[in-house]
Amino acid sequence: MAFSADGAWLYVGGIDEVYIVDPATNKTFYRERVGSQGYPVRIIGVTPDDRY
Fold first, then answer.
1. By C-alpha distance, which of 32, 10, 13, 31 is closest to 21?
2. Sign of the four-CA dihedral 48, 11, 15, 27
3. Residue 19 DSSP code
4. Within a 10 A sphere around the Cβ of 21, how many other Cβ atoms?
5. Residue 48's pLDDT is what?
6. Which of 1, 4, 28, 30 could form a disulfide with 20 if both were Cys (CB 3.0 to 4.6 A apart)?
7. How far apart are CA 16 and CA 39, in angstroms?
8. Residue 51 · residue 23 · CB < 8 Å
């Protein structure tokens, strides 16, 4: 999992895919197949400052 430099995007690994998620709405904007198995993750909450 990684954040973009400006903090607007959250990159998370999936099974054979990478997702780009809007942290404000938890909506997936983009999926890219990477050819190697990653780890599926679930958004289970937000940080205290409501950024992620």
1. 10
2. positive
3. E
4. 19
5. 62
6. 30
7. 9
8. yes
- Residue 3 CB coordination number (10 Å): 13
pLDDT tens digits along 5-31: 676 666 665 556 666 777 778 777 666
DSSP state of 6: T
Under 8 Å between Cβ of 21 and 34: no
Q: What is the pTM of this model?
A: 0.29
| Residues written for the chain | 52
50: which residues sit within 8 A by CB, 6+ positions away?
Answer: none
